[in-house]
Amino acid sequence: MGWKRTTRRSFAAGSVTLLGGCLGGSGTSDSEETSDGGFERITVEGTGVPLVPVDTVHEWYEDDAARFADARGERAYDRSHVEGAVWSPAPDGRPSDPVAEWPTDARIVCYCGCPHHLSSLRASTLIDDGYEEVYVIDEGFWEWTDRGYPVAGANVDVRPELREISGVTDAAHAGETAWARHEPTGQREATAIDDAGEYHLELRFTDVTADSTIRVETPEYRVRAPLGDLVGTTVTGDVGELRG
């Protein structure tokens, strides 16, 4: 996946360069007027995905003016999700995905917890499939819960521990995606590789310990190692047993 983060607002003249933020990469703002509310955008493989502030999304929720798609794994969705949201995992949904039954002109809000890597992947696929008004919660699901907005699920009071995995790969893969997966439970997370070839994954996996095996995957390599060995170091293709 190729990522580019831009802000689309109206400026009198000139442009500014944005830092890449949590998705990595960089982009520029421009002076083009848009009809999407001036929301900041991420471009994924040429598809622009608007990032919407969580408070704005909550207003839509209160007005019953949006439908919600949870782009995380099934375990995370079952534990807690935006009340009324359906499970539609990134990037392509699931067999018999409920979003497939929604009209293409419906306002759809995708979200994840990282805060918006997986949801941007899902949103870009929906846009490419012809859905006309698809957005992503910029700050992610955990900001939604922190503000006391409506949630449902089997264990809504649990906030999984944040663990961070950082790594580096060939800079030629800038803009592509790095993944972390806990294969026994199907939990996964994603982030973009930045211009220096670096990536930073934020994991909120449940039922994992320092001894749990995590698979980290980039376009250059795959590494399988205990979580405790991956946190606090720089992951490269020289770590772990699985490569290529």
TrEMBL record:
Gene3D superfamilies found in the cross-reference section: Rhodanese-like domain
Transmembrane segments: none
Domain of life where this protein originates: Archaea
All residue ranges annotated as the Rhodanese domain in the record: 62-153
Protein name: Rhodanese domain-containing protein
Alphabetical list of InterPro entries matching this protein: Rhodanese-like_dom, Rhodanese-like_dom_sf
SUPFAM superfamilies cross-referenced by the UniProt entry: Rhodanese/Cell cycle control phosphatase
CDD domains (alphabetical): RHOD
